[in-house]
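[job 0412] stage=fold_complex status=start
inputs:
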Amino acid sequence: MNKKTTLDGKLSIGSDSLPHKSFQQRLADRRRGSSTLVEQEEKREDLGFGTKINDSSSRLVNKDGSFNVVRAHQGFWNQVNLYHTLITMPWPKFLSLVFTFYISSNTLFATFYGLLGYDHLVGLSNVTPDTTLGRFMGAFFFSSQTLTTVGYGHISPMGYWTSGLAAIESMFGLLLFAMATGLMYGRFSRPVASIRYSATSIFAPYLDINGWMFRIINQRTNQLIDVQVEVSLSRLEKKADGMLYRRYYPLKLERSKVNFFPANWTLVHPITDESPLYGCTAEQLAESDAEFLILLRGIEDTFNQAVHSRYSYRFDEVRWGAKFRPMYTGTDKGSRASLIDLDQLDETDPAELN
Amino acid sequence: MNKKTTLDGKLSIGSDSLPHKSFQQRLADRRRGSSTLVEQEEKREDLGFGTKINDSSSRLVNKDGSFNVVRAHQGFWNQVNLYHTLITMPWPKFLSLVFTFYISSNTLFATFYGLLGYDHLVGLSNVTPDTTLGRFMGAFFFSSQTLTTVGYGHISPMGYWTSGLAAIESMFGLLLFAMATGLMYGRFSRPVASIRYSATSIFAPYLDINGWMFRIINQRTNQLIDVQVEVSLSRLEKKADGMLYRRYYPLKLERSKVNFFPANWTLVHPITDESPLYGCTAEQLAESDAEFLILLRGIEDTFNQAVHSRYSYRFDEVRWGAKFRPMYTGTDKGSRASLIDLDQLDETDPAELN
Amino acid sequence: MNKKTTLDGKLSIGSDSLPHKSFQQRLADRRRGSSTLVEQEEKREDLGFGTKINDSSSRLVNKDGSFNVVRAHQGFWNQVNLYHTLITMPWPKFLSLVFTFYISSNTLFATFYGLLGYDHLVGLSNVTPDTTLGRFMGAFFFSSQTLTTVGYGHISPMGYWTSGLAAIESMFGLLLFAMATGLMYGRFSRPVASIRYSATSIFAPYLDINGWMFRIINQRTNQLIDVQVEVSLSRLEKKADGMLYRRYYPLKLERSKVNFFPANWTLVHPITDESPLYGCTAEQLAESDAEFLILLRGIEDTFNQAVHSRYSYRFDEVRWGAKFRPMYTGTDKGSRASLIDLDQLDETDPAELN
Amino acid sequence: MNKKTTLDGKLSIGSDSLPHKSFQQRLADRRRGSSTLVEQEEKREDLGFGTKINDSSSRLVNKDGSFNVVRAHQGFWNQVNLYHTLITMPWPKFLSLVFTFYISSNTLFATFYGLLGYDHLVGLSNVTPDTTLGRFMGAFFFSSQTLTTVGYGHISPMGYWTSGLAAIESMFGLLLFAMATGLMYGRFSRPVASIRYSATSIFAPYLDINGWMFRIINQRTNQLIDVQVEVSLSRLEKKADGMLYRRYYPLKLERSKVNFFPANWTLVHPITDESPLYGCTAEQLAESDAEFLILLRGIEDTFNQAVHSRYSYRFDEVRWGAKFRPMYTGTDKGSRASLIDLDQLDETDPAELN
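[job 0412] stage=fold_complex status=done
writing structure:
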């Protein structure tokens, strides 16, 4: 009961933010120019998703940290955003794309050389048989030797047009290659924080009360420093007008920043009576379509670049009455270093809540 | 009426900032060393344009975010600022420039080879006809093969001078290419926030008062986080000395920072009685040559780089009594993701002001 | 004596943070939802190592600034983290790696060419003797000429398969080279603060009390600006439950930030009675396995990049009753510039403590 | 007179910071562990130069912003810091260095080829005369064709050793080139704020008191935003012990930050009675070896990089009783843009001080 009213309490607060004022009142307000509503509005948390996104079956942030939003009528070029795509696509895809591009460019140029006449490619017949396919393949190989500027010269262009085309192709090759280099470096040096989040967040006993917790590790060998984490609770609330609105509450963390992040880190939101989760139940989390939004920021060690990572836990990714199994497993015999077992990340043990 | 006086009020405040003190007062001030004027001056907002720019027909910030300022006697090299130009020019222009440069370099070197004697280029006659043009074109092709280091070798340099020139050209080619690569990568990795601003800003009803609003979207697919916006009102005011001075007022926003920027964002300046826009009319905006200056900052997601965007609305780019049409159009059937229609950005509907 | 009690004092404070409350109290707390423990916990310093790392023989931060932590079950790819490794490895190792890679790639491709038949490499016999080794070496050289795109052409591929393989190898070569370029630039432009720390930290007389001090210099010629330093004391403390826990205390510095860092800088923690080191002895430092953790941040001048440096002094790297020998040795005759002798960095002279 | 005492006032404050306490007092202090000296010390400004640098004839910051400090016994490699040098050296020097390196590498390799026997370079005699010089030059050209991977092939290596050397050289060439590319890009993308400071700073009438002023412009076309400036006064002061110590005072600016920096900016330190310059004379500036240290920070527009600039005015670079001539010269007829004349930067007109 008590709990229910608590939630109602919140909801009524929510509904307060759009009361129905008498005309006189509004007139008075306008004369004063001041507005209590404005002050309330300014207090309201908003992460940038807005209040309208109230479909209770869709999540806000996907597992990979991207936003669960589709944009209609986005301009084609803005949609493809070539560089962004080429930088973020996985290596195998990237390399096969490069290869495909290489093959097709050569095919294209080979065709052009054919149109200008194969006989302008001196030495072709020494390389490939004097058939249609043979000549084409010869032109193809010549093209590849030009594009990559390897230029053996056992096939060589003759006459204005063929020589000209070769001159253009070699320059084109250099530009392509310049781009490839840029992309390679871009892919390499792109700052990414590969944080692994515990499979589920938990409601666990914490000191003499309870806390909502999740655990993270840095998967990479390069260190992160100055890591800070922000957590927000997003949920639907019914306003006086009966409509569902999405509201956001920052969740205060016991510790939201660490200088070093050498091993694992358990983040704890203590459920005090100021917490929006105070006295909340699993059912309420579900019915209010609750989602915990996480934003992590840090500095990557190798290049001293700022990195960040997004994640979210939905109401059904929360375990009640559990505690994380420790990952620190003593000291490594050889190096006398502290030993952390990353496999323990997701492990929890049941624990009675306070 | 009331409104007029309000504006006068402002202007008189403006004029207050340079009162005429008696000699005694100033003497006293100097003895005290303290100065009320200094305190006032420190309070005055200044974005960096200064107060002198008071020609009412010129705008401060252009649509593309550049400043509407011309600098006389700027040193030539500072003016061209080669790298900056090559990085920021559009792709077609950049590529055609590269091409032109390639052609002209080859023409130049071909001429040099000619001066050293075409007969030092062995094999020339097999490639191009033995005419003046033919020989020149042959040298041109040889040059291109050297510059791009494709070096087929069916034309090859002979003798000290021609070989030496070829050696220099090939090195020169490598350097050029190194530059090209640098430029390519520079153009790629340059952090830009391609924010699209609503065509007009609006005066709209907001809660129980009114607000000045504009709306933005992120045109790109790569996300922006930690987006914050600063808005200033710039307008001319008549001081006691009758001169027009440009003054700047920060406009307090209902919400000036969001963690995430997945979709659209409507920025609202509530017109409370503290607002410099309180009780302001379209006529007054026009006569005071008002301009709304916007500075947006954020972090681009792919490379975690700081980006920013400038924009400005002039008095004639403001619509009175309108509200923006919602861009959130429910949930995408397939992906269950929230659906945003970017085409709605500029759409407004008439709305009665409070 | 007095000192001993002081340390006990600290320890008991430590133990305070987990008192044994009566069931009634905890019930009350829970009803209140408030928790004094939570407040205490929030106050507790934690750099990110956690309290569990309590093996008194292992250090937290290694001399090179890396963390003394071993991670079990780390995914293979995360462990190698190729780019990170290639960027951070010393130059000789990097270059020899490149060389090895070059040799082995050529060996591999030479084998392939052999499988496709050496007779498809025209001109081989003019380059190397017509023996098994000779032919293989010839193919090896041809491969190197293809990989580097030098392509003399005195050896040239014939037929579909060999030409095709050559086409692939030349593209492969370009990609490799693109990577090499990226790595080169990455290694070059990587921001590193090569700070040298004095061999030992000292307890020295400071004004009318004592201070714990260490001294640093910037080893490089490129300047650092906005340098700030954070120092924490980490030590083991016995809690009421008799267990050892590692606790962290920030050490307040007389001056923790400088705009410029042109020469040397002595950092001083004044041992006032608020200091956790107040009245502390060498024995106590040792028995509590004390370690001074240092984090330095700054801006590197050439590229205006943020850089940082970690270091730590353990209890046995502290000298009692000493003072640093000045490094400023007057003015350089020629340039009239201030003269700093870097060799003095580690030099100390005995000094009686207050 | 009054002024003189003022300065004395300051000096005595300076001397206050090291009073002579009775043994009792110091004992008491130590017992208390608290220290008034510590508090005073913490208040003292220090930019990082320290107090010892008290040779009155040497300046702290050079005109180019570098620090006027010489470091003895700096390790060789730290001193050269190759990358830093190659990035910061002027273009002509850089390019001639590249050229020299190119020539000498080829000379070196040519010698090696000679040692392995010129007869292993097939086709040499067709390129250069069959003399000692001729053969060497031929080898030189072959080397250049290998290093740049142009590889015409009219000269080609024969036999194991020569072919092997060529294989190594071509790889070596690629690495060199990769470095060159890295350097090129580094030089291009290096963030520099080319701020021009007015030749002299001035003491000018400011509102109803006086102010110390200097003026800056951005020489480049790419914009700076969020520009902030810190100014400190550094001067020698005599302490009670008769020694000269260098002390630093921050100078409060009327406006120390602007969002935009489209044109020129005059920075003003109002000389109120809180100012360390209050009632100061030219003689006093000189005798106390005063130097105004300036640190400017901003964000460069094209790449959104942080940039900074250092500068300093010594006592003899200050003009008394002058005011800057305005640089804003109305509106450009064509573009209707505000017109700024950069040539006016250093221009001042005499002005009577308040």
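[job 0412] summary: The mean pLDDT of chain C is 82.
[job 0412] exit 0
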